[in-house]
């Protein structure tokens, strides 16, 4: 794709999410403000984590011995991995570091406790700046939490900037380890909203995306994920398990809300399984896929019953079984929305989050807010991130 002539610069976005699968990176070119659409993706790269990096990140998800030192060391390994991703992106695009305005890097969440006033992403942005020679903008979530917000999800602001259509209500669902939804309301819906209450976007984490399915197939077949959902499709959902899991308080909490591995982890699943007669492993997988699909569909039924299209991004978009379960769950709730991938809006499902962090870096660069207070619950608009100059 060609570079737009009037642009705010080239930004690299690096995203590594709760799935702990690897880093997705892009070089994105944004047209000059205020028009930030279309976004041109000049290069993209996915660099999976090594088994040892993945294992160490997984171990850091819960309390353990000497975790401060372990987190610092893994942050260094991670930042070298990010730097290798940046090198690959530059080589693919035929660009030099000085042609990139900044890198927006999410880091790897090891704790997310907004209710206690903190979130922690393992990362060493100073090392990344040193290794790449490019300005690095990092730690996008902390300022929103300092302002009383959830620090998450941050992508709805980006979804609104690039995917909204005044003529129709659109839903964007990101199915990573955790699933989050953005509802981008059309202007007619807004016109009918209570004065002073109108808001053109809402967004929140709906609950588990792939995280439970990933850990279950790992335990039973040693695989990182259920490719194309074939194992889930081979089983029969167990209604008793589905009902029990859907009673989790988180699903009933009104947004703003966000969640992560702090809640949806192995013990959470074990607790539900332990209270029921033993189930075949494939049936559990089928039920976990249905839990993801139905909790997303419930959120859409509640907040966007008039949506025409649900655009899916994140790794879950590559799971045809999950997509079919989501389409079916929407139908069962009498919703007319069709399910498509964000490819239909010009950004591949596995690039959306990385482009979002490139966009958040652009926002920081322009000293513009990156959060949506109505989404995160923060007291107000805030400039997100911290700069580590090259
Ligand atoms: N072909 C596929 N079939 C089934 N699941 C897939 C496929 N491709 C990716 N995934 C799922 O997507 C996950 C990665 O999604 P991603 O958007 O990177 O999540 P995160 O942001 O949490 O890292 C994998 O762990 C896997 O569960
Ligand atoms: Mg990922």
Automatic annotation (TrEMBL):
Pathway(s): Amino-sugar metabolism; 1,6-anhydro-N-acetylmuramate degradation; Cell wall biogenesis; peptidoglycan recycling
Signal peptide extent: none
Reactions catalysed according to its record: 1,6-anhydro-N-acetyl-beta-muramate + ATP + H2O = N-acetyl-D-muramate 6-phosphate + ADP + H(+)
An individual GO BP term: 1,6-anhydro-N-acetyl-beta-muramic acid catabolic process
GO molecular function: ATP binding; kinase activity; phosphotransferase activity, alcohol group as acceptor
UniProt xrefs under CDD domains: ASKHA_NBD_ANMK
Pfam families: AnmK
Key words of the record: ATP-binding, Carbohydrate metabolism, Kinase, Nucleotide-binding, Transferase
UniProt KW rRNA-binding keyword: no
InterPro entries: Anhydro_N_Ac-Mur_kinase, ATPase_NBD
EC number of the protein: 2.7.1.170
Record-listed ATP binding positions: 17-24
Protein family membership: Belongs to the anhydro-N-acetylmuramic acid kinase family.
Record function comment: Catalyzes the specific phosphorylation of 1,6-anhydro-N-acetylmuramic acid (anhMurNAc) with the simultaneous cleavage of the 1,6-anhydro ring, generating MurNAc-6-P. Is required for the utilization of anhMurNAc either imported from the medium or derived from its own cell wall murein, and thus plays a role in cell wall recycling.
Classification via HAMAP family: AnhMurNAc_kinase
PANTHER family linked to this entry: ANHYDRO-N-ACETYLMURAMIC ACID KINASE
Protein name: Anhydro-N-acetylmuramic acid kinase
Organism this protein belongs to: Collimonas fungivorans (strain Ter331)
Gene name of the encoded protein: anmK
